[in-house]
Each structure stands twice: as structure tokens, then as C-alpha cells.
Amino acid sequence: MIKSIFIDYFTSYSVFAPIIAIISATLLLIVIFVNIKLSYKHKQQFIPLTILAVCLAFLTYQYIPNHIISSAVQTGNIYEYKKAINYAILPYQKGVFYSLTGEAYYQFEKDGAKAVQCYEKAHQYTKDYIADGYIPAALLYNVKGDYDKAIEISLARKTYNILTISYILKKDYKKALKYANLCINLNKSNPWYYCTRAIIYRNLGNIENADKDYRKSLDLCNNNSKFADRINKMYANYQYSFKNKYLNLAKEYKFIQ
To answer: Is the pTM of this model over 0.85?
Structure first.
């Protein structure tokens, strides 16, 4: 609950953020002025007023990293992401910003190694995988070949499609089948899910179910020749289709030269 409130407040970039900062700064100045005036006559009020002033100062300061990260998300400027991390005070906030930076390395820079470093830093601060940036993190761990880490994140985020692929890459086809079934139960109109399950069945030696899912995936293409062509190639190369795809992704994201 506390983390949820934290994320809603510290990672949402609404128009109210600068207004809150201005109000907090104004109240802070008032408190400081009153504090000075009363400190000599009313010593007992000095401590609570000081605490209130510090709290208001903190609220005012929080606008700075939030404004910077908001700008970074809009522009994709890595320097701005790093700047926001440096300005962040609270550990969980810093962790969320690291996660967003990892997503930026993934999306804009295509630098998988640096993205993974940011995700690992984020996890050191947050101790969970709640931020949305961890969804591409699971994909990158698959690309890197760290399937167990990808599985850990996918289970936490309930990204069953990535989880299925993790087990396929590990050649644990029984567990891959379990999560492929979950994917289809959640979305019965996705041709890729049926094609993926067909590939799993082929690797398990269940040709009858494999061909059934293969035909179903083609039916769901709705005469889209490009989709159908890709599915045909994946199914024909069922033993190496995912391996080759992730080898190409490893080159794209600079894990290998």
C-alpha cells in the first residue's frame, strides 16, 4: 500500500506537481518567518515548527527530480535520467528512476548491458519488480541468456508470454507448455500464442496437437499473408526459431559483437 502510494505520487507527472511545490515553498517561508518570531517568546513551539518546515522543504525539493524525470521520459535523454537519479533522495524513488533509465537504454540506446545494469541497481533499492520497466528487463535477461532471472521477473510481473519463451530457451518444454496454456486462456485470439504452443508440442513429440495449433494460428491470421508467412517459417524451423531470434536480438542489443 505504501509503495503504491509512493509510486502514484512520486512517478506521476501531473500539472499539480509544480503547484504543490509553490504552495509548499510559500508555506515554508511563512513557517520560517513565524518560527523566527516565536522562537524567543515560545520556545516550546520551536521544535514542531522546525519539523514542519523540514517536511515542507522536502515536499518542495521533490518537485526537482520529478520534473527532471518527466522531461527525460518525454525526450529520451539519458543524461536527464541520470540527473534525476542523482537528485532523488528516497531509496524507492531512486530505484524507480533506475528502472526507468534501464527502459530508456533498452528503448532508445539499444544497449542491453547498460539497461540490465540499471535494472539490477533498481532492484537493489526497491527489492521488487513492481515498476513497468521490468517487463523489457525480462526480455533482456532472455536475450542475455540469464533465463532464471527472466523467469523470476516474469513470475513477479505475470508476463506469461515471456515466461513461456524463457522455458523454451531453457528447453524445459513441459513448463513452457503450462504457461503457453495460460497465455491462450487469457487471449484466445492471438495467433502467436498458438504458434508458440505448436512449437512446444513439436519439441515434446506431440505432432497431432502441434499441427492442430499450427492450423489454428494460421486461421487467426485472417488472411494476413505477412503473419502467415512468419508463422510458417517459425513452425518449419521449430527447433531453432526462438534460439535464432534471440541470437539476433543479442547482437541488436550489443550483448555480442
So the answer is: no
